[in-house]
Amino acid sequence: MSPSFREPTTTTTSSGDSGDTTTISALPLDVLTHILSLLDGPALASASCASSHLRSFSAHPLLWRRLCTSSWPSTNHLPLSDYRSFFSDAFSALPLTTQSPPSLPPPPNLISAVDLRFNNHPIVSTVLQTETRSSWFLTSPFRIDALYPKEPPPLPPAATRSGSTIAAELSLSWIVVDPITHRAANLSSIRPVSVQRHWFSGETQVRFATILGRGSDWVQCGIVVTCDVYCEGERGNGVQVREVCLQVEDMDGMNLNGEESLDILQMAMEGKRKRRREEERRERYLQYLKRKMERKEEKMRREGRLDTACLVSNRRRSQPFDAAFSNFENGADGPDSSLSSAASAPGLSGYGGGEEKKR
């Protein structure tokens, strides 16, 4: 376990009746730097609060750059100026409730740093740039595809697990970066929230997701990793990544367009952060699915009531026509009876005969 620097910053050793007090500043510079380089992000942040001396050393850019590149290898290709601020944004979790609409105009480009690992071995590490000002991006369904530059490593030969278990060992980080404000947000749940096989292709789809609030509704920033999982075949045990894509969908399961998605991502990048708890992200995803199902059922009930009301209204509207049609079939008010009664009227029956007599 990494040291937390919560112990006092002075140590006392006694020799006889005298005692010597040594501060941490007495440590050689290279020793202190080496100790700090072994800490993870939260421990390094705690160390900076222990003393002013540690604060000055803990803020060194090289320490935070090493943390960023070891946690997310794709950051080696990012032009970052403040690695400590980037780590704080990307490592922390996003709250469910978002802030008010973005105060700044959308950036001309959206940067994505994608890192996919299997058993803690990097298999995808890439940086993407998406142009955000074209009409095609703003009006089309939002989707960003990540390419994979190298073959993923196979599983150890001793592994004899099912495909779903193998796929569940994937971990993903998808960090979006605003190149103007240099704010960042990690849209991935780190660990999968669901693993399922596609009904047609048979490929395994591993889903990572972060749920964000938009007013009274929730939206899902979903990342789907499509892969082939092979167990104990000619190629051994392993996973072959086919596709990695990011999409944003609403409570009705509809994919949002680029303009709507960009607003949500901006609010996420500009918003507050909270302590990361991976199990909380899966719980939030399950709550999202529950609310989504309840919304669908309520919509079906509402449409059912509307169909019933329309059916009753049409039935009432058609009753006079049904009665008239029934009388017509019975001959009560048919056209033949009308003509016969008209022909037998006194005024009309003698009209022709009177003309003949005058002639």
UniProtKB/TrEMBL annotation:
Keyword set, alphabetical order: Coiled coil
UniProt cross-references to Pfam families, sorted A to Z: F-box-like
Coiled-coil segments: 262-306
Gene3D superfamilies assigned: 1.20.1280.50
Location of the region described as Disordered in the Swiss-Prot/TrEMBL record: 1-21, 325-359
Annotated F-box domain residues: 21-67
Composition skew (Low complexity), residue ranges: 9-21, 331-348
Alphabetical list of InterPro entries matching this protein: AT3G44326-like (IPR045283), F-box-like_dom_sf (IPR036047), F-box_dom (IPR001810)
Domain of life: Eukaryota
The protein's name in its UniProt record: Putative F-box protein
Protein's organism: Cinnamomum micranthum f. kanehirae
